[in-house]
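EI: anyone free to look at a 264-residue chain?
SC: sure, send it
EI:
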Amino acid sequence: MIKVSNLSFSYTGGGVPVLSDINLEFDQRTTAIIGQNGAGKTTFVKLLKGLLKATYGEILIGEYDVKMRTAAELARKIGLVFQNPNDQIFKRTVLDETMFGLLNIKMGRYTAEKLAVEALELVGLDDKLSMNPHDLSLSEKKLLCIASVVAMDTDIVIFDEPTIAQDHAGKEIIRRIIQKLKEKNKLVLTIIHDMDFVAENFDRTIVFNEGKVLLDGSTREVFSQKDVLEEANVEPPGITQLANRLGLKNTILTVDEFLHECAK
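SC: here you go
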């Protein structure tokens, strides 16, 4: 669905690169992009979305060459939920906020409202349609932004730190949304620091470090590479670390796996 070839990017043209020689292909596996702050993760997804243009290299999304397309054209293909919802919200009601992208691609108002309400039901905000988004809590604002992107029904959905400010109930909502998108054969990407959530919900994990891809593989395989993760200053999920300390041989990703392994 996405092919990235020899991608490099610098904010100052010929200056120090933020990303260097990235080569990746994305299929429909749910994929987490992890790494320390400053590793280049957010810059990378902004390049995918067309919000930035590559200094060198190529990004293909389906038949689209991202360099040759505007962000508005790419909006039909790829949706991005920003890390800070206040950077994304600007309409006066929850419903208008969720409908904005749909109306912007010239969808009829009746259909746009129907899809927006369905997306708001999915995140549990359908009882706040006329509320001003800025009066929502931070976690509700994040869910509103997720609803706005999900309503667009793009083939690719990117979440930037989706679990920030979310309690257990909020994380469960996001988990269900990821599963629904996966069932619809959407590509779900996330930038995230919540390793427990990664282990439980993502098939593939990519580790960025200093603007380069340090690891790329199945989530279980990546979290088994303790020494390489240390190089990127990334800690495995808590349950994985506990299993390692107890001497369990297999790489454990979830509490259920841990209990099953201990019961043997």
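EI: Strands lie at 2-9, 19-26, 31-34, 56-61, 64-65, 78-81, 156-160, 187-191, 204-209, 212-218.
SC: 👍
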